[in-house]
Description:
By secondary structure, this protein is an all-alpha fold. 82% of the residues lie in helices and 0% in strands. Helix 1 (6-34) packs antiparallel against helix 2 (37-64) and helix 1 crosses helix 5.
Amino acid sequence: MKKIDNVVLKETGYIASVTVILSVLMQVLFVISGWSYTHLLGNILGAFATVANFFIMGITVQKAVLKEESEAKKLIKFSQSARLFGLFVIALIGHLVPFFDLLAVIIPMLFPRIAIMIRPFIIKD
């Protein structure tokens, strides 16, 4: 495989950083409302899946820019479907396995959207 582009690493690092910060805040809210170890384990599972999903998306885009337009579209579409299915499987695991809290698994999946939304206020390029 070709070297991972610095932009992919930088953006994944940003998403991971915001995900960790928001995960800590979420744990504080869980502590206030009645904490259980399932919240922590679910948060870790969801946060890991979210950051991995974003990283895989970055790698896919890196590969797609080197392909012809029709090939790139197919690759992006397949990646999007596969990554969405992967997140669904993670959520299903969070639901079926008793030592994960489902909400704690699903909520971190929203963190990249929040990170992207607040980025202009945090980082001035």
